[in-house]
C-alpha cells in the first residue's frame, strides 16, 4: 500500500514511516556498508468490546459490525477509521454479537464465513455473547473471560501483532499475556471498574495463565500458584495498568484524578505505578473526540442544517420541530435545557435536577423555560412523577433514548446539562458546542478539560461551570445560563458563533488520533519502552 502521512507533520518518524532515511551528501565517498532493511510498519491489534462502525473495505459485511453502548464505541470507531485510512497495518478484534450483527438469523453460513476471511476484523466466538441484544448485556464477567480466551488462544497467534491496544477491564488480562510473548501493549482506561477473577476461573474458561500468573495483580500476596489458585482474587483493571507498556485515559484531568486518589478505587501501589509511567512519558490523558457525523452542517437527523454563520435561523427551525414532536408549548423564544445522558444517579447527577426541577421551571415561567430529556436509566420514573404531579407536560418532555431525537435536541436546544459527579471524558458537552448548545457542567474530569466559564462579557469561555456537586450549585449554573439567554441578541449570536468555531478546531478526531499515533510510534521505535515500567508494583505482594 502507498504510504501516507498523518494529519500533522510534526511527528518524525510517524507510525507509518518507521524507516531509515539517509540524506544525500557531496562529501568524499565512504566505504560501502551493508544497507539496513527499512523497518516495516508495526502491526496493531485493537481490542474493544464495542464499536459504532467499521470502515468500509476493512472486511466483508463491515456494515453489520456495530455494537454501541457508550463513548468507547465511538472512540474505537474513530481510531480504527483513522488508522485504516492512513494505511496503517491495523486489525480489530471484537466479540461476535450475533444478534446485533444479524449474522446467523439473516445471512447464509457461507456469507458469514466470508465476513472475516482475508480481512482485518476478527470476531471472537462464544455463547457468552452470541445472544447479546446489546454490547453490555447479560453476564459481562463471563463474556470478558470468553473474549480474552479467544484473543490469547486464537487471535493474537493469527495476527502476530507488534502492538496490542486494549480497552478497559474486559481486556485486563491481555497485557500480562502479551508481556510474556514480547508484544507491547497500550491500555486505555475509560472507567474505573475493578472486576475480579481467580486463576481457577481463568483456567476454567480455557485460558492458561501458568506462564504469566506472577505478573497479575492479586488482592493478597501471591506466594505460589497453588496457594493463589482458588481464593486469591485477581484485579483485572490493576493487572492491565501495571503490565501495559503505555497507559492512556480518556482525558488529562481524569488521569490526574486517578493518581491523586480522587477516584479512590485503585490500590496505592497501582497509582504509584501509573504516576511513574507518567513521569517516564508512558502514560497520558488523551481527550476523546465526538464522531465526525455530529456536525450541524450535514447532520441528516436534524430538521434544518446550519453553520457557525447561520445558526440563528437553523436553531429556530429545529427548536420548533423539536417542540412539535415532543408536545411542548410552541414558543421559539423559550430557552430549552437538554439532558442528553443516561439517567444514572450514581454518576450523572440527575438527582440534582429533580431536586430543583419544578421550582426552576416555575421561576422562569416568564420566559417559558423548557426541559427535554432523551435518555434511559433507573431515575426516569422520578422525572415522570414530577411532570405528572405538576401537570407540566407542555414544559418538560421525557423520552427514551433515540439517536435521531437526541441529535434534533442538540440542534433545537439552547443549553445541554451535564452535572456529573465524575466524568472520565464525556462527549455531549463537546457535541453541544458543535451545535451551538452551550454546556452547563460540574467541574470534574473531562468536563474540566473541555468547558470554560463564559466571562468578560461572554468573549471568553464556552459554557457554564459549577464547582460543588449539589442542587444549589446546579441552580446557580442554570441562573447564569438564563442571564446569558437574556443578553442582547447580537451578543448571544456572536458568542455562539465563536463557541461553534472554536469547537470545530479543538474537539476533532484528527487531534485525538495524532496523540494516539505518538504513543504507537513511541512503542514501535523505542526499544527500551518495556524497561520504563515500574518494578515496585511487579512484586505483586502488596496487600490492598
* Unreliable residue stretches: 1-13, 18-28, 528-544
Continuous helix count: 20
Order of strands, main sheet, comes to 3-2-1-4-5-8-9
The helix content is 25-40%
User: Structural class of the helix and strand makeup?
Assistant: alpha/beta
How many E strands?
15
Terminal CA distance: 50 Å
Beta-strand share of residues: 5-15%
Descriptive account of the structure:
By secondary structure, this protein is an alpha/beta fold. 38% of the residues lie in helices and 12% in strands. It has 20 helices and 15 strands. The protein has a seven-stranded parallel β-sheet, sandwiched between helices. The protein has a six-stranded parallel β-sheet with strand order 12-11-10-13-14-15, sandwiched between helices. The protein has a two-stranded antiparallel ribbon with strand order 6-7. Strand 1, helix 1 and strand 2 form a beta-alpha-beta unit. Helix 1 packs across helix 20 and helix 13 crosses helix 18. The protein is globular. The N terminus and C terminus are likely disordered.
Secondary structure layout plus pairing:
Blueprint: E1 43-47, H1 71-85, E2 89-95, H2 98-101, H3 109-113, E3 121-124, H4 127-130, H5 140-159, E4 163-167, H6 174-181, E5 184-189, E6 196-197, H7 199-204, H8 225-228, E7 234-235, H9 236-243, E8 246-249, H10 252-259, H11 268-280, E9 283-285, H12 311-326, E10 336-339, H13 350-363, E11 370-374, H14 380-390, E12 396-399, H15 403-412, E13 415-418, H16 428-434, E14 438-442, H17 445-450, E15 464-466, H18 471-485, H19 489-506, H20 509-525
Parallel strand pairs: 1-2, 1-4, 2-3, 4-5, 5-8, 8-9, 10-11, 10-13, 11-12, 13-14, 14-15
Antiparallel strand pairs: 6-7
Amino acid at each position: 500500500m502507498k504510504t501516507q502521512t498523518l494529519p500533522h507533520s510534526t511527528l518524525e518518524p510517524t507510525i507509518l514511516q518507521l524507516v531509515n532515511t539517509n540524506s544525500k551528501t557531496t562529501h568524499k565517498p565512504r566505504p560501502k556498508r551493508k544497507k539496513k532493511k527499512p523497518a516495516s510498519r508495526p502491526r496493531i491489534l485493537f481490542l474493544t468490546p464495542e464499536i459504532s462502525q467499521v470502515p468500509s473495505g476493512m472486511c466483508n459485511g463491515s456494515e453489520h459490525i456495530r455494537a454501541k453502548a457508550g463513548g468507547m464505541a465511538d472512540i474505537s470507531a474513530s481510531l480504527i477509521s483513522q488508522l485504516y485510512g492512513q494505511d496503517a497495518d491495523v486489525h480489530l478484534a471484537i466479540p461476535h454479537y450475533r444478534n446485533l450483527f444479524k449474522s446467523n438469523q439473516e445471512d447464509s453460513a457461507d456469507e458469514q464465513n466470508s465476513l472475516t476471511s482475508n480481512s482485518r476484523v476478527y470476531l471472537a466466538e462464544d455463547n457468552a455473547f452470541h445472544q447479546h441484544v446489546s454490547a453490555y448485556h447479560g453476564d459481562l464477567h463471563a463474556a470478558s473471560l470468553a473474549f480474552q480466551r479467544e484473543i490469547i488462544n486464537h487471535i493474537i497467534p493469527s495476527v502476530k501483532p507488534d502492538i496490542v491496544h486494549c480497552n478497559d477491564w474486559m481486556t485486563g488480562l491481555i497485557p500480562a499475556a502479551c508481556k510474556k510473548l514480547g508484544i507491547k501493549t497500550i491500555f486505555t482506561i475509560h472507567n474505573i471498574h475493578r472486576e475480579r477473577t481467580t486463576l481457577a476461573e481463568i483456567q476454567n474458561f480455557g485460558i492458561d495463565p501458568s506462564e504469566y500468573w506472577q505478573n497479575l495483580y492479586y488482592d493478597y500476596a501471591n506466594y505460589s500458584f497453588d496457594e493463589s489458585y482458588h481464593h486469591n482474587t485477581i484485579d483485572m483493571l490493576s493487572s492491565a495498568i501495571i503490565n501495559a507498556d503505555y497507559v492512556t485515559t480518556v482525558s488529562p484531568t481524569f488521569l490526574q484524578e486517578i493518581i491523586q486518589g480522587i477516584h479512590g478505587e485503585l490500590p496505592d501501589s497501582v497509582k504509584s505505578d501509573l504516576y511513574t509511567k507518567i513521569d517516564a512519558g508512558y502514560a497520558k490523558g488523551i481527550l476523546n473526540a465526538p464522531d465526525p457525523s455530529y456536525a450541524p452542517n450535514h447532520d441528516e437527523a436534524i430538521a434544518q442544517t446550519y453553520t457557525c454563520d447561520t445558526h440563528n435561523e437553523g436553531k429556530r427551525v429545529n427548536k420548533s420541530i423539536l417542540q412539535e414532536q415532543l408536545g411542548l408549548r410552541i414558543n421559539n423564544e423559550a430557552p430549552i435545557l437538554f439532558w442528553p445522558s443516561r439517567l444514572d444517579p450514581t454518576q450523572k447527577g440527575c438527582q440534582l435536577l429533580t431536586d430543583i426541577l419544578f421550582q426552576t421551571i416555575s421561576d422562569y415561567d416568564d420566559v417559558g423555560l423548557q426541559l427535554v430529556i432523551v435518555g434511559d436509566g433507573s431515575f426516569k420514573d422520578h422525572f415522570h412523577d414530577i411532570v405528572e404531579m405538576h401537570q407540566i407536560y407542555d414544559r418538560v418532555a421525557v423520552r427514551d433514548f433515540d439517536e435521531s431525537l437526541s441529535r434534533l435536541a442538540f440542534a433545537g436546544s439552547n443549553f445541554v446539562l451535564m452535572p456529573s459527579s465524575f466524568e472520565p471524558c464525556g462527549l455531549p458537552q463537546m457535541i453541544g458546542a458543535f451545535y451551538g448548545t452551550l454546556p452547563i457542567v460540574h467541574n470534574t474530569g473531562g468536563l474540566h478539560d473541555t468547558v470554560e466559564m463564559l466571562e468578560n462579557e461572554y468573549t471568553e469561555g464556552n459554557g457554564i461551570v459549577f464547582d460543588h456537586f449539589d442542587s444549589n450549585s446546579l441552580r446557580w449554573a442554570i441562573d447564569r445560563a438564563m442571564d446569558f439567554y437574556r443578553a442582547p441578541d447580537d451578543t448571544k449570536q456572536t458568542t455562539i458563533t465563536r463557541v461553534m468555531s472554536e469547537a470545530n478546531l479543538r474537539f476533532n478526531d484528527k487531534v485525538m488520533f495524532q496523540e494516539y499515533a505518538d504513543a504507537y510510534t513511541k512503542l514501535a521505535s523505542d526499544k527500551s519502552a518495556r524497561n520504563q515500567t515500574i518494578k515496585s508494583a511487579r512484586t505483586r505482594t502488596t496487600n490492598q
